[in-house]
Amino acid sequence: MTGGARVHKNLTPHAGRLSADRRREKLGQRGAVVWFTGLSGSGKSTVAREVEALLVEDGRNAAVLDGDNVRLGLNKDAALLSAAGYGEAAAGRFGLGFSAEDRTENIRRVGEVAKLFADNNVIALTAFISPFRADRDLVRALMPKGAFFEVHVAAPLAVCEARDPKGLYKKARAGAVGEFTGIASPYEPPRAPELVLHSDRETPAESAQRVVALLKRKGVL
Amino acid sequence: MTGGARVHKNLTPHAGRLSADRRREKLGQRGAVVWFTGLSGSGKSTVAREVEALLVEDGRNAAVLDGDNVRLGLNKDAALLSAAGYGEAAAGRFGLGFSAEDRTENIRRVGEVAKLFADNNVIALTAFISPFRADRDLVRALMPKGAFFEVHVAAPLAVCEARDPKGLYKKARAGAVGEFTGIASPYEPPRAPELVLHSDRETPAESAQRVVALLKRKGVL
């Protein structure tokens, strides 16, 4: 409910009528962010969806944020914004591609949305390549201590490329996709992730169980 | 889990392992968006927080999105992005102020986030002036039929200005705040809102009860 330029000086986060403790008590659930990072094809979305299913079957609310629902919505590219009625200038300004700057903004927005979910007692499961360490660390810094879990989905490049579920590695090798992570753009692995999933040696179901075990061990569940 | 330019052609929204029906059954709750719109000082956030409290006390998850948590997070302005480490160009590009273009993008992003909450069985309660009809209609169009409730918080300008909870009207009259809705920028009231709250003649608690009654009548609760 704001209305003027530079009004952020007047903003303070709402305490709300409802305390965080009361929310947690009534909903029977803490919020958290589980941040899956890894190469394209490593299995991030697949594992995130498995974890979602386990949690929801257990009556907990969990929400997957991934390229498929975010790049088509909140983080549309310029072409999709144009199709939604934006003029050329606004579409170019706000639309997100895959340059380093655009990826940083992509991850920043996802981090802020994941935080909103976690603040509202939902377990956010994010599945983005998120290749840059600094971007992931910014998201970690947004979150309260103990509510951010970085999970490295660590299949080797050769395995991911052999899987190539969307044919993107093939296109990247042919030079048809610019700045593709692992081929023409770096992937910076986490230095101290809360969990490493060897998705070349364990099934998505096994990986998901390990994530749930982590959340139990850390008191989220 | 995407990796190349214009990759949206390869994207399809994930069906997921978990069906929407199963999610709803296990969580015992439908998602929806309740979109509060009205002048600064009309009481949007206050009513939204009252509704949140009523719903959470009833064991339903509801999440308030408002200027206070969104303008300080997802929709930071250029100054806040700079403070977060963005370079000048990126901060200027992605930071949101209060021009018409920026407001449209503000509302678009909020709409997409509200949709993500609703898709995940949370009742999103958004409290933004959202002065432009076209912007609100774009959000409505994102949502499945029957899951979007536009609520006009319709206190007259004179009442809002007399309340002036943040001193912004005073600043706007003094010319210290540009493009302030109701003073130097238009407010376009909804033509067919699902509900009108006369927040000059009813208490926030009464307004909140009317919103809950609407959600019951429409089968959300």
Number of strands of chain A: 5
Distance between the termini of chain A: 34 Å
The percentage helix of chain A is: 40-55%
From the alpha-carbon coordinates, what is the Rg of chain A to the nearest angstrom? 18 Å
> So what's the overall shape of chain A?
globular
Strand order, sheet with most strands of chain A:
2-3-1-4-5
Describe the structure.
The structure is a homodimer of 221-residue chains. By secondary structure, chain A is α/β, with parallel strands linked by helices. Chain A has a single domain (28-217), classed as P-loop containing nucleotide triphosphate hydrolases (Rossmann fold, 3-Layer(aba) Sandwich), CATH 3.40.50.300. In chain A, 43% of the residues lie in helices and 11% in strands. The first copy, chain A, has helices spanning 20-27, 44-57, 67-70, 78-83, 88-94, 100-119, 133-142, 157-163, 168-173, 204-217, and strands spanning 32-37, 62-66, 123-127, 148-153, 195-197. In chain A, strands 2-3-1-4-5 form a five-stranded parallel beta sheet, with helices on both faces. In chain A, α2 packs across α10 (204-217) and α6 packs parallel to α7. Chain A is globular and about 50 Å long. Chains A and B meet through α1, α2, β2, α3 and α5 of A and α1, α2, β2, α3 and α5 of B.
Brief summary of the model shown:
2 copies of one chain form a homodimer. By secondary structure, chain A is of the alpha/beta class. Chain A is 43% helix and 11% strand.
What's the SSE blueprint?
2 copies of one chain form a homodimer.
Chain A: H1 20-27, E1 32-37, H2 44-57, E2 62-66, H3 67-70, H4 78-83, H5 88-94, H6 100-119, E3 123-127, H7 133-142, E4 148-153, H8 157-163, H9 168-173, E5 195-197, H10 204-217
Parallel strand pairs in A: 1-3, 1-4, 2-3, 4-5
Helix pairs in contact in A: 2-10, 6-7
